[in-house]
Amino acid sequence: MGGSECLFCDILNNKKSAQRILETDDFIVIENKYPKAPIHLLVVDKTHREKSDTMAGAYQNESYWDKLFQAVHEAVVKLNLDKMGYKVVINESKYYHYGHEHVHVVGGGLGEVDSGEIRL
């Protein structure tokens, strides 16, 4: 876990706190500090990978995305979002605040999540 002054690396290294929902070999799932929905999770890569690299295909290993979405699935089932409905959001370019690869899982049964800016 690397990345100087990376919030997610600090969380992974227990230098900053976050409410952990679950952990796999490759990802942690945490609650978003600034939720945009009743349930707003972040699925964070345990390895510091820049979003610009993963989205540009630097990690063309299919198992990377399989493992990421397996972590999403486990969190969704654990919190019963599979019964309420949810969205998976991948912010890119001007829409992300942190380069460390992560995805948002938002839901919780209050209708559509607004299209406003989703941030950590």
TrEMBL record:
PROSITE patterns per UniProt: HIT_2
Record motif Histidine triad motif, residues: 100-104
GO MF annotation, one: catalytic activity
Domain HIT: start-end pairs: 7-115
UniProt xrefs under Pfam families: DcpS_C
Top-level taxon in the UniProt lineage: Bacteria
Active site: 104 (tele-amp-histidine intermediate)
Name of this chain's protein: HIT domain-containing protein
Native organism: candidate division WWE3 bacterium RIFCSPHIGHO2_02_FULL_38_14
